[in-house]
Automatic annotation (TrEMBL):
The keyword Transcription regulation does not apply. Belongs to the serine/threonine dehydratase family. Keywords: Allosteric enzyme, Amino-acid biosynthesis, Branched-chain amino acid biosynthesis, Isoleucine biosynthesis, Lyase, Pyridoxal phosphate. This is L-threonine dehydratase catabolic TdcB. In the native structure, TdcB is in a dimeric form, whereas in the TdcB-AMP complex, it exists in a tetrameric form (dimer of dimers). Its cofactor is pyridoxal 5'-phosphate. It comes from Nocardioides panacisoli. Pathway: Amino-acid degradation; L-threonine degradation via propanoate pathway; propanoate from L-threonine: step 1/4; Amino-acid biosynthesis; L-isoleucine biosynthesis; 2-oxobutanoate from L-threonine: step 1/1. PROSITE patterns: ACT (PS51671), DEHYDRATASE_SER_THR (PS00165).
Amino acid sequence: MSIEEWAAAIAEARPLVDAAAVRTPMLESRWLSSALDRPVWLKCENLQRTGSFKIRGAAVRISRLTEEERAHGVVAASAGNHAQGVALAAQQAGIHATVFMPAGAPIPKERATRAYGAEVVFGGRFLEDCLGEARKYADRTGAAFVHPFDHADIVAGQGSLGLEVMEQLPEAATVVVPTGGGGLLAGVAVAVKSRRPDVRVVGVQASMAAAYPPSIAAGHPVRLKEMATMADGIAVGEPGTLTFGLVRDHVDEIRTVSEESMSRALVTLVEREKLVVEPAGAAAAAALMDVASGDADGDFPGPVVVVLSGGNIDPLLLGKVIVHGMSAGRRYLSLQVTIADVPGGLARLLTLVGDLGGNVLEVVHERVSPGLHLGEVEVLLQLETRGEPHAETLLEGLRSSGYVVVERS
């Protein structure tokens, strides 16, 4: 389809989305605006029904099923967010839903999917395994297969988010979108560029699950051999045929972000915006933070819209990610310090740390180590700092006082 035809398809799908989903808020981010020296706005799909944008596409796909298809129910494959969108849309339509989920799917997402009335079946290690199982189930039972991203109805439904962005911030110059299989990115790109071709659309993938860069380089979808990311919402090993073409033709750039960057972004969104997002939902914010900190090159013309695509995070994972993010931001320091084995030696070290503003969380006193000389003691410190500049000041203060200090990861 041409971009004009896609625009018409998204406009036609809009009422179906509005009947099932909510119009999520657009909030100005003062800290990101200050960091990049241009206006930055957050499109808060983490506040959407089911906690992510996925209800948009699922509602359109399911609402267009025939009566015969409805009688056989629907089947889907998902790590969690699409599962919940399909489950809710099916519940609203009064039809049965079966969802195949990866074995390691987050427990809260699994439970929420069941709570919306869907039957959950574990179907393999990765999403691609589950997609295969879901297709077999559809062939066996006649259930309608609801693909998580590679279907025109799904793309049209996700495109409604792009329309909302342009209505809420008509002067937007860049839209940054977390990206897995590409349904959201494709829908947003065609929706935005059908109205404003000059707007820059950027997709962001987790670097450990980034199928689009090699696929675009090859000119066709390429399946990754392995993935390892906490961002399960965008852990898709191969772009869809439909979404790949749309992303290739209408998206200006694909960026990747590290696990550490997503952790830092998630922590900062909690601290500064009071918004809980999942790692995948923080990917777009992470890309901006990387540029602002100098960790990545590039530019985002403003005003910039950052899509927070979801907020469904396991509380246990949230705790781990917060610790990871604080460590990545050097809010936590793990130090190995060699001191003289004399009375009062440890006390003097801890006093200096306190004078330098460090908060001691844990101390391990080690007298036996192959690298120690006679009369030396190794001290392992876990410290809390106020961030990067303070961490450097603390390290400099310890070393200038004669201590041998090694920072541990």
